[in-house]
Amino acid sequence: MPSVRFYRGLARAAAVLTLAAQLFMAQLATAYLSTAQAATLRLGLFGLPSHGGNPYSLAGMPDILTMSAMFDGLTRFDANGTLHPWLAVAWENVDQLTWIIRLRQDVRFSNGTPFTSQAVVSAVDYLTSEAATAEGVATELNFLKTAEAVDDFTVRIVTKVPSPMLPRYLPILYMVEPGAWQTLGPQAFSRAPVGTGPFTVASWRPNGIVFDANRDSWRPPRIDKLEIRAVPDVTARLQALLSGQLDIAYSLGPDDKLAVEDIGARFLVAPSEEVRVISFITTRDTPLRNVLVRRALNLAVDRAAINDALLGGVAPPATQGATRGSYGFDPSLPPFDYRPEEAKQLLRAAGLEDGFTFSVELVSGSTANDMAIIQRIAEDLSKVGVRMDIRQVTIQEFLRDTATGSWQADSFIMVFPVVPPMDVLRPLRLHSCLRPLPWFCDPSVMPAIDAAFSEFDPVKQVEQRRALMAWERDQVPALFLWEDVRFIGLAPGVENFEEINGFINYDRITLSRKDR
């Protein structure tokens, strides 16, 4: 008969085996969870930032969609257009030129350096320097003069002119780690950016960026990796989503809805806070310099028919150079009617009864059905005797042309964006004499624009903005089309995605499936 010692030994062995089994199962569970959490969220855009991870190079698309993974500004808007604290917790207007900004005290950069007033001072010092002349964000914030640290978490900002809308521009005053920025310089920093956002760059290639989670961020992400891919062709973006190669696909077409939903994915229609236009280059000696010609072209396009046929009927027709959610929007201005006979009369009055030819640059694949849309516009214009030659360019060529004024065409398709300040005046920074190399410049209206930018009285602010919207509608510096929308596909398992004014909440997105 076995001894008591034998049974005790057997019990101990059983306990050891049970413990080993528990540890093994725990390791399996941990491995599974680690794999699930480490799944890479893959996002497809029509292009990547042209200057890498330099957050000051451009304040528009596609840069802004990428920068919010790495950087934070001082304020941010919510979906209702209300401005909220972000890296700044409070701000106060001391006088017409001076602001006091108070900062968060619990933030570190991805290299471990604490975020303090010095980061704001360093950013303003750079953006107001000659070295930043070509930077897009410097152009947006050209009213800045100086910044001074009052203490570690309080900054005094002084502007060159009264700037009542300063807080509304602070979403793009991105914070870079001052030591890394000064040591590396903008070009080297763009390859190894250091910000306060939820992700850090692991590798940057021409066709994609791989990010690692910044677990020490003040808004840490819920996934371990992010990959943003450049997929210039809209059909390729759709196929990548349907085949499981992408989790989020931007700038799809309205006709892609059924295909997206057929795989259990979600199809979102999101306002872009941009007015889609064909901008006329009026600084050259072409018929487009004549306001009668510009008015004729705006009457010659059947926007409603194009919207119904190619945009799912969801893009509101443009009434002015700003979207309806922006500050100062004038709801009394009607859409541009389709009146081709009146367009012909205006062309005759301009001495162009036989019509004329002009060219347009297009970044193909950047928006839904863009080539089909521009062809429909060309067809409408041909009915009034105007020929529009279409020239396709890459996003890099387009950005180069707008930055340097080296267009090879007479016009180009782009947007009038009201972001980041959600203000109707913002597009006028791009589409007026305020631009260093303008494509439309009317000096006579500049005093009114300057006055509107400097006005602190809320009632006068709205009055001045609406007067400028009426002036712009009368002068039509562009062929106004519609308030743009973005069609976005979200694969099964992608949750908590939100984009507001170009900023994606990368820290809140979850990916519930471990692999696709």
Concise summary:
With 516 residues, the chain is an alpha+beta fold.
How would you portray this structure in words?
- The protein has 516 residues and is of the alpha+beta class.
- The protein folds into three domains: 37-70 and 197-253 and 497-516, Periplasmic binding protein-like II (D-Maltodextrin-Binding Protein, domain 2); 72-185, Dipeptide-binding Protein, domain 1 (Alpha-Beta Complex), CATH 3.90.76; 273-486, Dipeptide-binding Protein, Domain 3 (Dipeptide-binding Protein, domain 3), CATH 3.10.105.
- The chain has 16 helices and 20 strands.
- It has helices at residues 4-37, 63-67, 117-127, 136-140, 166-169, 178-191, 234-242, 257-262, 291-299, 303-310, 340-349, 370-382, 395-404, 426-430, 446-454, 458-475, and strands at 40-45, 75-77, 83-85, 88-95, 98-103, 144-151, 154-159, 199-205, 208-213, 225-230, 248-249, 266-280, 356-363, 386-393, 411-417, 478-490, 494-495, 499-500, 503-504, 510-511.
- The strands form five sheets. It has a ten-stranded mixed sheet with strand order 8-9-10-1-11-16-12-15-13-14. A four-stranded antiparallel sheet has the order 4-5-7-6, with helices on one face.
- Helix 9 (291-299) packs antiparallel against helix 11 (340-349) and helix 15 runs antiparallel to helix 16.
- The longest helix is centred in the N-terminal third of the chain and has 34 residues, at 4-37.
